[in-house]
From TrEMBL:
SMART domains: GAF, GGDEF. It is an enzyme of class 2 (transferase). Signal peptide: none annotated. Its EC number is 2.7.7.65. Residues 529-665 form the GGDEF domain. The keyword ATP-binding does not apply. This is Putative Diguanylate cyclase. Keywords: Nucleotidyltransferase, Transferase. Pfam families: GAF (PF01590), GAF_2 (PF13185), GGDEF (PF00990). It comes from the Bacteria. The lineage of its organism: Bacteria, Bacillati, Bacillota, Clostridia, Eubacteriales. One of its GO terms (molecular function) is diguanylate cyclase activity.
Amino acid sequence: MAKDLAGETWPWEHLLAAWRALGEEAADEAAFLARVLAVLVDGRRVRAAWVEAAGSGGVMAAAGEPLPVAGADVRSWPVGGPEGATPWRLQMAFAEAGVPDAGLAGFYGEWAQALGRALARREHERRRRRLEALYAALAALGEWFADHCERCRAPVPHPLLDQLTRTLAGVGFPSVSLRVPQGARLVPVATAGAAGPLVARLPLGTGPGGCSAPVRAWSTGATAVSSDWTQEPLLRCPALAPWRDRLAAAGVGGLIAVPVIVEGEHWGLLCVCTGEGAGLSAEEITLVERAARFLGLALEWARSQETLARAHERTRRAERLYRAMLHGSALPLRRQGERALLRRICRDLVSSRIFTAAWVGRPGEDGRFRYLAAAGAGSQALQQLRITVRDEATGGALASRAWRSGRIVYNNRHRADPALAPWADFLARYRWESAAAVPIRRGGIIWGVLAVAAARPDVMDRTTLSFLSRVAELAGNALDQADLEARLNRELEHQAWLATHDPLTGLGNRALLSQELPRALARSLRQGTSLALGLLDLDGFKAVNDRLGHAGGDRLLQVVAQRLQAAVRASDLVVRLGGDEFVVLWEGITGPDDLPELVARLETGVGQPVVIGADRVQIGFSLGATCFPADPEDGDALLRHADWALYRAKAAKGRLGPRWRLYGRDTGTWEGEAGKA
């Protein structure tokens, strides 16, 4: 061989050029091989050279005479590929048999191995570049997603799906598609790549069977890879033969199908097609799987954001609701009154912008609801509803159901409820799409119903219903508080009345006399008139009380008190001091001369017989009086003078008829009559 080389039997320069060509760059494998093979062919000894696939025999590149070369001695050397495989062969057609010799053949064998290593390096570099592109694409997709979420505040699924498919297609995949189940089919929702529209029209099912990589991936929930999708049983059936030819013409070869899992469930399928003859490395499959996982996580995040947004909206709605409730609806009734409270509740519910109408009603004796307060759309026309709790024909109203059941009832498709057909026109006119009614309890029993309506369906969720129950509870509490305060006020008024009145007879007592006598004296001086103060006790009362008992004596005192009150003017005052002692205060008289007539009126009233059970009682009285300002003393002194006059009147025993005496300070004598006044 050395002699041949030295004698220029072989052009050594060609061989060196071939070695140098192994390190040159070219756009693709075919151009690279054509450049290298062209160096090997010298036209004399080597007539042609080509590289073919080891399995199929398909020619990848050739140089020299057209194939096949007639009359040539064809020699073959294996060309190593990536990862130790030998997928190709170097074929060379020599002009003469026995050329090259053993030494040169070994050289060509080493050269073929070097060619394989060069091809492997190129394949490795191609995969490296694609991996880098995939990494960059996923990073760019993450940045896009973050930027989109920042701008939009919540991710929108469709832009994300489109961006993902476009990103993967930009790496060099002829088709990238996302499919989601729709019935028994997997339908595309996003597609990219040159062959994307064609692949998107290919029908795929969700049922088990394992005849296609997408179906296997969907059925098993694991990644499925096909090195040549067009040769799978699914596309080899006669019905899909045209699709196989179209996919092959579009340059579609292998396929990787990865399920997209969202919150533990199958959401869709990521299908990535490779070019014809271009395999997928384990690293590339891993990155495609990572893209599917990224999509699943992004969709989970999107769902969580939507959930948070709904929760935030419910929180905002609850805040508005409770703000409306706390804005004054629960104020004590003593500050606003019962009707005012109910109107305030209705107005605040409507002002929350969640409800379009609110009303409070309760059925009357006829079972028909009476509306105590209302606000919002349709509030002025509520009487048209004619809701009753007794008539079965209209018993389907929410207010009727709430009244009968004692529970909150609601309807999120209010207008679609056939039980509400009698009010269909009203509901449509005022847009009552959803509604609820909750009973209001007062004193532990159902007193009325609070009803609300909203212009949107599905408003009555758990938060809203809980709020309405709370509002009804607060309204009931406010009404109970009002009832309690009314009872307390009545009790306070009664206690105040008892402080100045006698509970047995209803007349004023000594405390009332102590308050009113000084005022009466002041009025007398101011008006220039006189007043008379009479102190009387009943004659023979003790005997009646002993004979008829305390109940009979109390009844006698009550009748006497009523007759004394009837015998005086409205401006006069009758007081019971205790026992059978009474005080009469006459105001606006001209002087002592008016007393005989005033006392006579008392005698006429009291002197009538009193029937107590089966007994008929005749009673009389003795009276002592004094007159102001003829007796120009203060109240206590006047009362003592009247008492002294009464003592003198009672001392005159043995004479019939009322006995009374008038105190006379100036003369020191007692004036009056011993007989009938």
